[in-house]
Design brief:
Elements lengths: L1 E7 L2 E12 L2 E12 H5 L3 H9 L4 H6 L7 E6 L1 H12 L2 H9 L8 H14 L7 H4 L13 H11 L17 H12 L9 E10 L23 E9 L4 E8 L8 H12 L5 E4 L6 H9 L4 E4 L6 H7 L7 E2 L13 E8 L2 E8 H24 L8 H4 L2 E3 L4 E3 L1 H8 L4 E6 L5 H13 L1 H11 L9 H27 L6 H10 L1 E7 L2 E6 L6 H8 L7 E4 L2
Parallel strand pairs: 5-8, 8-9
Antiparallel strand pairs: 1-2, 2-3, 4-16, 5-6, 6-7, 9-15, 10-11, 11-12, 12-15, 13-14, 16-17, 17-18
Helix pairs in contact: 4-20, 5-9, 6-8, 6-18, 8-18, 17-18, 18-20
C-alpha cells in the first residue's frame, strides 16, 4: 500500500491505495480517502495521522522520536542503481578488473572510472567538480576516491600497450583499445556482427597546449580555430551501439582517417567483411581509390555541389526513379523516397529524392529570401558576414539584389542527395542502408554532447585519451539504456530521465545508534527505467546496519 494525491475538481485528496493482481494484471484499488489536502495540511493533521499509525510500526516510531540529537542525511540513489547494473552487464567492470589484475595502484581504479563515467552522464563539466558532486550521491566503493585518483585512473586508460600492431599513423595503441575489444567480445554473442558500420567525427578544443602530440590546430567543428584541438572518431554498428572511438591530433583531416579506421576495425574485432557507411566529409578521390583497391565495400555520401562530374553528369543523367519501401512497409504506404542508378566514369552512383525533404528545403530557402528582402531594404551593411545569405545575392558596385539564377540552380538540389558505392546492393538497398545513417544521427548528436566535455584541461596525451574514453563509456551506457527502454516500448527524453533518477533520494535518520533509510517517491520515468534495466526499487523504509 502507498499514499497518493488525486485531483477532483478544484480540490486535491489524499488516498491510501494498494496494488492487486487480477488475471495477471496489476490493478490499483483505493483503500481509503483520507480527506482534502488543504484541510489535512491545516494544524499539521497529516503529522497527527502518521503519529497515530506509528503505534503499529517500530520503524516509524524511530522517525517520530522527536529527539533533538537525531541526525539526517539525504542523497540521490537513482543514477548509481541503474548504471551500476548496466556497467556490470555490459562487461565493463569485468574487463577492467581483468586488465588491472596484478597492477598495484593503491586505490580502486575500477571504482574511480565508474565514478568518472557516472559524473559525465549527469553533469556537463570538468572532472574537477566530480569529488564534490559525488557527496550528494550514493555510489558504492567511492568514499576514499579523490580527484588525483580520477586523473591516475584516466592515465591508465591512455597508457600505451606493449603490442603496437594495431596502432594507426595518428595514435598509439593503448589500454582503452583493449577495453573496447574486451567489451565487444564479452557480448559478441549478442552482436549480429559488424556487417554495417557508421563512422563520424567531431573535434574537442583545449585550454592550453593539449598534450604532447594530440593538441594541434586544424579545422574546428567547435568553431574555435584559435585553440589546439583533438579529433575524435566514433564507430557505431547498425543497431546504434557504439563499438569504439578513435583519437587523432587536431590537424588530421577527416578524409585521412577512414582507411586506417577500416583497417583497425578488421584487425581488432576479427571482422572479415563489412560495409562502411559514412557521410560526405569522409570522402575524397584518393580515399575512394584506396577503398576500391582494398575491395572494401562502402556507401558514401557524395558532394553534389562541389564535384562537377556529379553536378553535371550524374544529376542530369536520364533515368526513371523507382519508389523505395523500407522493411515493414508496403506499396499501400506513402513512399516519399525515390531512387535511380547512374553509372558514369567507371563509378556507380545512386541518386535519391525525397519529396518531403524537397518541400522543406524549398520552404527554408524561401524563408531566407524573405529575410534577405527585408535586409536589403535596410541597407547592404545588414548583409555583411552571413555566408548562407550571400549565396543568393547579386552584388554590384552600387547595388545588392536577389539573384534569381542562383535560386534556380540551388532548387535543383531540393530533397536530393547522391550516394557513391562499390557494393552489389540494389539501388533501393543502398538508399535504405544510407538512410540508417540518418537514423543514427541522434547517436552522433549524443556523441557530441557526451564526448564534448569541453574545454579539456589535461596536459598529457595519456590523460586526454583517458578523459575522452570515459565520455565514450558514458555514451555506451546511455545508448544501452535507450535500447532497453525501446525494447519495453518506451521513448523518453534524456533530460527527463536524468531529472527523475536524481529525484529518487534516500534519507537516512540516525538516532540512539539506530539508522533508518526512507526512500522518496518514484516519479516520472523513474519506475519504467528501473523496470527496463531489471533493478528493483528499494523499499520505502528499511533499516540500515551501522
Amino acid at each position: 500500500m502507498f499514499a497518493r494525491t488525486k485531483e477532483s475538481g478544484k480540490y486535491e485528496y489524499l488516498q491510501i491505495v494498494e496494488n492487486r493482481k487480477i488475471k495477471g494484471k496489476v490493478v490499483q484499488r483505493v483503500v481509503a480517502t483520507l480527506g482534502r489536502m488543504d484541510y489535512l495540511k491545516e494544524k499539521k493533521r497529516i503529522e497527527v495521522l502518521i503519529q497515530s499509525l506509528a503505534r503499529y510500526s517500530e520503524k516509524v516510531l524511530l522517525i517520530l522520536s522527536g529527539k533533538s540529537d537525531a541526525s539526517t542525511t539525504a542523497r540521490k540513489i537513482g543514477p548509481s542503481l541503474v548504471f551500476e547494473r548496466l556497467w556490470e552487464e555490459l562487461g565493463i567492470k569485468k574487463v577492467l578488473k581483468k586488465l588491472l589484475w596484478g597492477r598495484k595502484y593503491g586505490f580502486d581504479v575500477e571504482r574511480a572510472l565508474f565514478l568518472t563515467v557516472l559524473h559525465r552522464l549527469f553533469v556537463s563539466g570538468s572532472d574537477r567538480f566530480c569529488e564534490k558532486w559525488r557527496k550528494d550521491y550514493v555510489i558504492q566503493g567511492v568514499r576514499d576516491i579523490s580527484l588525483h585518483h580520477l586523473y591516475r585512473a584516466m592515465t591508465f586508460l591512455g597508457k600505451p600497450t606493449e603490442d603496437q600492431k594495431d596502432a594507426t599513423p595518428f595514435a598509439v595503441r593503448c589500454m582503452k583499445d583493449q577495453m573496447e575489444e574486451g567489451i565487444f567480445f564479452e557480448r559478441r554473442d549478442l552482436f549480429t556482427g559488424l556487417d554495417l558500420v557508421f563512422f563520424d567525427t567531431t573535434s574537442i578544443y583545449f585550454e592550453g597546449e593539449g598534450g604532447e602530440t594530440l593538441g594541434q590546430k586544424g579545422y574546428s567543428k567547435g568553431h574555435r580555430p584559435d585553440l589546439n584541438q583533438v579529433v575524435v572518431g566514433v564507430v557505431i554498428d547498425t543497431n546504434g551501439k557504439p563499438v569504439c572511438c578513435e583519437i587523432w591530433p587536431g590537424n588530421t583531416a577527416d578524409v585521412k582517417t577512414l582507411i586506417p579506421v577500416v583497417a583497425r576495425i578488421r584487425g581488432r574485432f576479427h571482422i572479415g567483411q563489412f560495409c562502411i557507411v559514412a557521410d560526405r566529409g569522409m570522402i575524397s578521390a584518393e580515399t575512394l581509390k584506396e577503398l576500391d583497391e582494398r575491395k572494401i565495400p562502402y556507401i558514401l555520401g557524395a558532394r553534389m555541389r562541389r564535384v562537377t562530374g556529379i553536378k553535371e553528369d550524374v544529376l542530369s543523367h536520364p533515368g526513371q526513379y523507382q519508389e523505395v519501401y523500407p522493411e515493414g512497409k508496403s506499396s499501400k504506404d506513402p513512399a516519399p523516397l525515390k531512387v535511380k542508378e547512374v553509372s558514369t566514369g567507371g563509378s556507380r552512383y545512386i541518386v535519391c529524392y525525397n519529396s518531403r525533404q524537397a518541400r522543406k528545403d524549398a520552404q527554408d530557402r524561401q524563408a531566407i529570401i524573405n529575410s534577405l528582402q527585408e535586409k536589403i531594404k535596410s541597407g547592404p551593411k545588414n548583409l555583411i558576414g552571413n555566408k548562407g545569405y550571400r549565396k543568393y545575392l547579386k552584388i554590384d558596385r552600387d547595388s545588392v539584389s536577389i539573384d534569381q539564377k542562383k535560386i534556380e540552380d540551388e532548387s535543383r538540389f531540393d530533397g536530393t542527395w547522391v550516394l557513391s558505392t562499390n557494393t552489389n546492393f540494389s539501388a533501393d538497398q543502398v538508399a535504405i542502408k544510407y538512410k540508417e545513417l540518418w537514423q543514427v544521427e541522434q547517436v552522433f548528436r549524443d556523441v557530441k554532447s557526451v564526448v564534448d566535455t569541453r574545454p579539456v584541461y589535461h596536459q598529457r596525451d595519456e590523460n586526454i585519451t583517458g578523459h575522452i574514453f570515459c565520455s565514450f563509456l558514458a555514451l555506451v551506457l546511455r545508448k544501452e539504456l535507450d535500447r532497453r527502454l525501446e525494447k519495453c516500448g518506451h521513448s523518453f527524453e534524456w533530460a527527463d530521465i536524468k531529472q527523475d533518477l536524481k529525484s529518487l533520494q534516500e534519507v537516512v535518520i540516525e538516532d540512539n545508534g539506530k539508522s533508518l533509510a526512507l526512500r522518496t517517491e518514484c516519479i516520472g520515468t523513474c519506475g519504467k527505467v528501473f523496470q527496463a534495466v531489471g533493478v528493483a526499487i528499494p523499499p520505502t523504509i528499511r533499516e540500515v546496519k551501522t
